[in-house]
Amino acid sequence: MGLIVQKFGGTSVGSIERILHVAETVKAEAEKGNQVVVVVSAMGKTTDQLVSMAKKVSPQPNKREMDMLLTTGEQVTIALLSMALIEKGFDAVSFTGWQAGIVTEPVHSNARIAKIKTEAIKEQLQAGKIVIVAGFQGITEDGEITTLGRGGSDTTAVALAAALKADKCDIYTDVTGVFTTDPRYVKNARKLLSVSYDEMLELANLGAGVLHPRAVEFAKNYQVRLEVRSSMEKVRGTIIEGEARMEQNLIVRGVAFEDEITKVTVLGLSNSLTSLSTIFTTLAQNHINVDIIIQNTTESGTANLSFSIRTEDWMETVNVLENNKAELGYEQLDAENKLAKVSIVGSGMISNPGVAAKMFAVLAENNIPVKMVSTSEIKVSAVVEEKNMLKAAELLHEAFELSKESY
Ligand code: ADP
Ligand code: ASP
Ligand code: MG
Fold it and tell me: Is 368 left (phi over 0), alpha (psi -120 to 50) or beta?
């Protein structure tokens, strides 16, 4: 007998029919003799609708109350799925995040899981029950309800799989697996049979919304065997594991992209040893995540600094920099909005020096200006104008021949 964690995302539980269908999938796993823990998201677009209601009440809603509101979405799904299973003659029980023992840091809207007290779930499993857990939510040591960030139900599932030492964690979603790029936008995207934790981590961090980045982090750190698969079609999905077996050494495995990026430029920064640390410490203290950083020294001895942020943090960034202008000692602030980041990812890049050159050549030949660049051993990212994002992704997908079968 094994222990399986299954996770079903918003579209997969988007209607009563879908929930009944999910109940069949859960039932099939339980009938194989496995213990089953199921993590679910809020139904369909519920979370988006709750966010938009909150914004009508308050443009920048109080974060504690926002978590209180958003966690209601998942609570609807756990109860309905549990009822559906009970109706089918199975013993099922639903748990909110706190009932499931998911303890997080004391941070609202984007909390990290600190630990999982698994006793309650284990007790129910031992009593022969299927346990249905609300994704995306947890509780602080002080009893405050928190959420794990948008898309965080994946993280609930993988963290539970790690804590319970599950044999497998199946992420059921609205696509049949992890593709070479987002199949919703690039028609030649191809499903990968397997992908390594490191590649998946980069893809997820760089905008491939199919898995929450922290879910991949957990999977990697605790060696959880993950499969991303379809909740609608019974086909093989994508295995995420230590080494991608079939397609090792491929230079580029995938293309990821994300929009709503802003480039902030700080001109005339005093060129002292501490000016960079002061500016980024100030931004970090205000929870502003900075991505790509470029610094140039000018002839007059001052420095110009550019960095990219998510556009939603732009107003906050301007406020922080302006409020600390005297201490930071710069002359002028500029920003460029409506930018996007397009990235190529692949573990074979480490040993193939020409990859970045090829990427920039493709973009240049197609008149796509590159605003910023960043690289790591297994990725190259280029910031481009938002209007060029999908074209750039398609061109790179084509240039690196990602739609071709390679196994
Ligand atoms: P769920 O509600 O099941 O969590 P998400 O919408 O969060 O589903 O994630 C699935 C979506 O991720 C797909 O519909 C697809 O558009 C998007 N996606 C982005 N990049 C990729 C990729 N490389 N492979 C597969 N899907 C991707
Ligand atoms: N319901 C949450 C969201 O829409 C969490 C999730 O679906 O993973 O972001
Ligand atoms: Mg998701």
Answer: beta
* Locus of tokens 């609608």: 232
Helix (H, G, I), strand (E, B) or coil at 113: strand
191 Cα–ligand 3 center, Å: 17
At 211-228, the pLDDT tens digits run 999 999 999 999 999 999
- Tokens standing for 120? 């309650």
Of all protein residues, the one whose alpha carbon is nearest to atom 9 of ligand 2 is 150
What would be the CATH architecture of the domain defined by 3-174? 3-Layer(aba) Sandwich (3.40)
d(CA 24, CA 30): 10
Helices (DSSP H) in 108-164: which residue ranges? 119-126, 153-163
Query: For residue 367, what are its two tokens?
Result: 């008149």
Which pLDDT tens digit goes with each residue over 344-379? 999 888 777 789 999 999 999 999 999 999 998 899
Query: Six-digit token pair at 133?
Result: 């857990």
Query: For 212, what's the count of Cα atoms within 13 Å in the CB-facing half-sphere?
Result: 23
Report the distance separating Cα 86 and Cα 183, nearest Å. Answer: 36
Distance 175 CA to ligand 1 centre (A): 7
Pocket of ligand 2 (CB under 6 A): 9-10, 41-42, 47, 73, 135-136, 150-153
- Ordered by start, the domain boundaries in the chain are 3-174
The structure tokens listed for 114 are: 């600190």
| DSSP symbol at 368 | -
